[in-house]
């Protein structure tokens, strides 16, 4: 690749052309970004996932070889297009009616393109405070790619201090989100004819108290007065939600299996671990009841995802920087999880700020407006200017 600078829109076109659905490889995209950075004199660092050889994160550092960088963080993966009616090719950016259509234009290759642009711009203009780029994978399947990437970054690069996670926020400073974790619960009962159900263990009926426990927690949480940290969220309480259940084979057989998926969205200020412990206590009680009927009955629980909350820092470094660049001084929090909580947990100041509206994410005909993309570009220009002082 010849040494040339691409515009943010050119970069967006290239990034969207790689169909980096989470289950598939993102290596062609990562390798392309690495080559592009190299052609502009920037050393890319690729971290291949040892457990998934078809996936990698990429990060890079520009500016003085010292700590305190601003970190621009995005994810490279996108959600699937399966079953979605698209009017255009999802992996080609199509401009129409002041919008760029394409999978990931909003969530979040628009930001990724702008972040790569900013890094190259900082390299060419020279900066007195370093800038870092961090692009992860597997964000859309439970934010599992960022923690090992953050660990790898800290081994290779001087530690950054302020992280801007560019999830779509309409370029507003989002300073908090809930933590989240999910459980995949599998109850294994004991099959008998339903007429003698008392000699069997019905996995579905054994699951019911666990689900009803969640109903009770929701009622309690809803009616309790919210803490100061929780009050800004919608809803301002921790939610326990069952989104999927399956089990049983016939109306007259006690169900041998029942599986359900529960997820918790925990407000900042409450401990994720306490909710996990409370649920596991219920699981043990349910298992004891099942085994009182048949010793082979049991419950297997696995953790499907776990994302720490982003706790509002109240005048933290990342927030202050983004407020200075955007002029946005209002309070914004969101109820979905992001990699910002993971950076914060690893000792960085973190904030969410990116172009586009989360309402367009994951949709068929996903788009980012040209105005939002341009607003993101202006933001990056201001950021690079600030790093040069
Ligand atoms: Zn995203």
Q: Sheet bearing the most strands, described?
A: 6 strands, mixed
Which spans have pLDDT < 50 for at least 5 consecutive residues? none
Say which molecules are bound, naming each kind only once.
Answer: zinc ion
Query: Structural class of the secondary elements?
Result: alpha/beta
In terms of DSSP E residues, the strand content is: 15-25%
> Which percent range fits the helix content?
25-40%
Order of helices and strands: HHEEEEEHEHEEEHEEHEHEHEEH
The number of helical elements comes to 9
The radius of gyration over CA amounts to 23 Å
Query: Could you tell me how far the N terminus lies from the C terminus, measured between alpha carbons in angstroms?
Result: 31 Å
Number of strands: 15
Strand order within the widest beta sheet: 1-2-6-3-7-14
Mean pLDDT: 95
Shape: elongated
Notes on the protein architecture:
It is a single chain. 45% of the residues are buried. With 389 residues, the chain is an alpha/beta fold. The chain contains nine helices and 15 strands. Helix 1 (8-17) crosses helix 3 and helix 5 (203-223) runs antiparallel to helix 6 (272-293). The mean pLDDT is 95. Strands 1-2-6-3-7-14 form a six-stranded mixed β-sheet. Strands 10-11-9-12 form a four-stranded antiparallel β-sheet, with helices on one face. It has a three-stranded antiparallel β-sheet with strand order 4-5-15. The protein binds zinc ion. The site of zinc ion (ZN) has 5 residues, from helix 3.
């Amino acid at each position: 690749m010849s040494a040339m600078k691409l515009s943010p829109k050119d970069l967006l076109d290239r990034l969207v052309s790689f169909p980096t659905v989470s289950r598939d490889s993102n290596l062609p995209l990562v390798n392309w970004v690495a080559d592009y950075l190299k052609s502009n004199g920037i050393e890319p660092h690729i971290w291949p996932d040892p457990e998934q050889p078809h996936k990698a994160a990429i990060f890079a550092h520009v500016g003085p070889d010292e700590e305190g960088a601003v970190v621009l963080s995005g994810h490279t993966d996108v959600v699937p297009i399966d079953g979605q009616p698209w009017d255009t090719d999802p992996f080609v950016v199509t401009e129409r009616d002041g919008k760029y259509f394409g999978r990931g234009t909003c969530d979040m290759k628009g930001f990724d393109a702008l972040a790569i642009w900013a890094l190259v711009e900082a390299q060419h203009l020279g900066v007195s405070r370093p800038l870092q780029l961090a692009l992860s994978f597997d964000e859309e399947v439970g934010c599992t790619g960022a923690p090992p990437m953050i660990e790898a970054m800290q081994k290779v690069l001087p530690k950054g201090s302020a992280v801007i996670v560019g999830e779509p926020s309409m370029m507003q400073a989002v300073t908090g989100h809930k933590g989240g974790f999910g459980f995949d619960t599998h109850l294994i009962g004991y099959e008998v004819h339903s007429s003698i159900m008392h000699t069997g263990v019905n996995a579905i009926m054994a699951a019911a108290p666990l689900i009803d426990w969640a109903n009770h927690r929701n009622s309690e949480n809803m009616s309790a007065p919210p803490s100061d940290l929780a009050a800004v969220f919608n809803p301002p309480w921790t939610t326990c939600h069952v989104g999927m259940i399956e089990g049983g084979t016939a109306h007259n057989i006690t169900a041998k299996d029942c599986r359900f998926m529960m997820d918790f969205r925990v407000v900042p200020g409450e401990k994720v671990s306490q909710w996990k412990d409370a649920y596991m206590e219920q699981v043990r009680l349910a298992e004891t009841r099942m085994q009182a009927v048949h010793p082979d009955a049991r419950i297997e629980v696995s953790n499907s995802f776990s994302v720490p909350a982003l706790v509002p820092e109240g005048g933290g470094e990342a927030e202050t920087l983004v407020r200075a660049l955007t002029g946005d001084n209002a309070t914004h929090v969101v109820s979905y999880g992001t990699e910002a909580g993971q950076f914060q947990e690893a000792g960085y100041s973190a904030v969410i700020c990116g172009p586009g509206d989360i309402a367009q994410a994951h949709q068929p005909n996903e788009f980012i407006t040209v105005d939002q993309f341009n607003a993101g570009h202006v933001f990056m220009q201001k950021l690079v200017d600030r790093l040069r002082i």
